[in-house]
TrEMBL record:
Residues 10-106 form the Rieske domain. This is Nitrite reductase. GO terms for biological process: nitrate assimilation. Gene3D superfamilies: Rieske [2Fe-2S] iron-sulphur domain.
Amino acid sequence: MTQATVGKWLDIGPVVQIGPGSARTLPVEGGEEIAVFHTMRGKFYALVNKCPHRQGPLSQGIIHGDTVSCPLHNWRISLQSGEAQGEDEGCTPTIPLKLDAGRIFLLREAVVPQFMPSQPSSAAQSA
Ligand code: FES
């Protein structure tokens, strides 16, 4: 793996830390908590840990195939697209994820909040 690749992807730990059919959460300082899912078929997905209905914690839902049932009102959310299934409407943001050498990587720019200047620019101050 090149240094650029290392910088682009965030290593969040070994795949064995998340058993099949379960999920773990990843708190993000200044950003949205992320849920990482491991399906019974061995696939891994990462989504913002909020249901598109009323922000239920998707990480606490039950995984069926490549969907998760929200623990609050049972909406089914696609782990691949983040979209609500059936007649429900809404979408949870997904986070690009890859596996390499037994470890889980998330796309850094999708996890870490973009830099927001805390001070107004000098041009804005003089206006
Ligand atoms: S909050 Fe998820 S179904 Fe209502």
